[in-house]
Design goal:
With 253 residues, the protein is α/β, with parallel strands linked by helices. 39% of the residues lie in helices and 17% in strands. The protein is built from twelve helices and eleven strands. This is PurE domain-containing protein.
Length: 253
């Protein structure tokens, strides 16, 4: 159950519209829903502020569709599905409002929420080949209520391309720097920006990049302060973390 749904239930109790015992029963029944092949964590939104995200890789289209049905029945407005195949997208009930983003392999059931973060999340890539990971990060951040600015193909092989976007970089609340090869983009951005930088190594590159290991090690050894690193190709993890950072201002008020 989402925080909004819990709040609405409590307001109904306060207004005398719902009996206390009935409300208690609904809450007691909420911790998870048994689907046979999965246990839907219905309380995650209450604990973490973000409802469970469906990781699509390894699940059948039918399993994803059933999880979506259960989440919608439970009142979930926006459902994020990562690493989703086109076949799984085709299995979603047409009755659900649904958009599939092929580039980032992201499915979103429901509408994107209005941005309520304290600033902008900038997603920058070294090259066009990094865009699938970047779109996973950007769409994740948007689905979690953030305004996202995309800066694609601004790698260090043509540094003037990045420097032409200094205003966007310096006005960001958090930046996601995505690059393969030697992964230098994160260090360069880290030396320019006054906000947290989340580095995402990608598996883009020739043989000696070892499927992203070279960029991972480069980013871990960045000499720029304020750079953190997520796993190789983990656009979702970067987008989620960026959203948490971008919403910290609301907790401090």
């Amino acid at each position: 159950m989402e925080q909004r749904a819990i709040k609405a239930l409590l307001e109904q109790v306060a207004a005398g519209q719902v009996d206390v015992d009935d409300a208690l029963l609904r809450l007691k029944m909420e911790p998870f829903e048994e689907l046979g092949f999965a246990k839907l964590d219905s309380h995650r939104g209450l604990r973490q502020g973000v409802a469970e995200v469906i990781y699509g890789a390894g699940k059948t289209p039918e399993q994803i569709a059933r999880i979506v049905d259960a989440m919608r029945s439970g009142g979930q407005d926006t459902i994020l599905i990562t690493r989703m195949s086109a076949e799984a997208a085709a299995a979603i009930d047409p009755a659900h409002p649904f958009t599939y983003y092929e580039m980032g392999r992201i499915g979103i059931v429901g509408s994107l929420p209005a941005p309520d973060g304290s600033g902008k999340v900038v997603v920058a890539t070294g090259g066009t080949s990094d865009m699938p990971v970047a779109e996973e990060a950007a769409l994740t951040a948007e689905a979690l209520g953030n305004e996202v600015v995309r800066l694609y193909d601004v790698g260090v092989a043509g540094l003037h391309r990045l420097l032409s976007h200094l205003e966007e970089l310096m006005s960001a609340n958090v930046i996601i720097a995505i690059a393969g090869m030697e992964g230098a983009l994160a260090s360069v951005i880290g030396g320019l920006a006054d906000c947290p930088v989340i580095a995402v190594p990608t598996s883009i590159g020739y043989g000696a990049c070892f499927h992203g290991l070279s960029s991972l090690l480069s980013m871990l050894n960045s000499c720029a302060s304020g750079v953190s690193v997520v796993n190789i190709d983990n656009g979702f993890g970067a987008g989620y973390l960026a959203s948490m950072i971008n919403h910290m201002g609301g907790k401090q008020k």
